[in-house]
Amino acid sequence: MCLINFQFDGHPKYKLIMAANRDEFYLRPTETAHFWKDHPTLLAGRDLMQMGTWLGVTTSGRIAALTNFRDPSVPDADKISRGAIVRNFLSSDIAPREFLENLVPEDYAGFNLLAGDANQLFYYNNIDAKAEEVEPGIHGLSNHFLDTPWPKVVKGTMYLERYLSDNQEIRIEDLFAFLQDADQADEGELPDTGVGAQWERVLSPMFIHTPEYGTRSSTVLLVGHDGHITFAERVYEKGEVKEENVFEFQIAADK
After folding, report:
1. Which domain of life, per UniProt (predicted)?
2. Who is most buried in 33, 64, 73, 223, counting CB within 10 A?
């Protein structure tokens, strides 16, 4: 997952509104969003190489989403797959702060993590290695720290702010549409993350499309004040829409 724009605790109908893109190599095998057979309460897509995921929810309302922290100077070899963090959080009942504080940062290549539920959401990265509660409002997360003003993050948060100020009723297709913005940032706006100017430009849009790498899926997650969850995934194949699936359910009451 390489871009997550979301509003937390600020809408009259929804506790959480999230719109996210997952960027990955096209050859990496992936299952579309579904309830997992080995964890029947967990709804997410699945990376079939390491069997983890990048964004998911559970029937009890647990939520987690992950992005990589881009730093090519730090080797990825001999690290645990980052997708295991999301899988492990969603398949457990450990309190979010406790779960995050028990992570071993050096076990993983750089990552950002949002974890919790629509009432209390935490942000964690393994560079600072500390759990922070997310403040109410509109936020953006790409491959640096939360709310780092990269062009795609700024564009996404500005769109979400305008859209939500004009609409109390949220249309999933509207959020999918803005996630397809493929305009590259101007040269003077590009960050310097160590991948070179050409790749900085290629990776700067909200929606990425190259011959071998790009946006594989978009996800819209809505959690209502009434506990109703809408989870929608649009899957792409080399930039073209392949399929779209929408799941709706009520958060299960505690037994």
Report:
1. Bacteria
2. 64
- 173-227 confidence digits (pLDDT tens): 999 999 999 999 999 999 999 999 999 999 999 999 999 999 999 999 999 999 9
Q: What is the DSSP string of 50-111?
A: TS--SEEEETT--EEEEEE---TTS--TT-B-THHHHHHHHT----HHHHHHT--GGGBSSE
- Decide if 24 contacts 45 (C-beta within 8 A): no
- Alpha carbon distance 169, 184 (integer Å): 30
The span from the CA of 23 to the CA of 210, in Å, is: 11
Q: In total, how many domains does the chain have?
A: 1
- Whether 43 is in a domain gets the answer yes
| CATH code, domain carrying 166 | 3.60.60.10
Q: Could you give the C-alpha distances from 203 to 56, 177, 210, 241, in angstroms and in order?
A: 24, 19, 9, 20
Residue 235 maps to a domain: yes
Structure tokens at 60: 């009890």
Assigned domain for 255 exists = no
Residue 163 DSSP one-character state = H
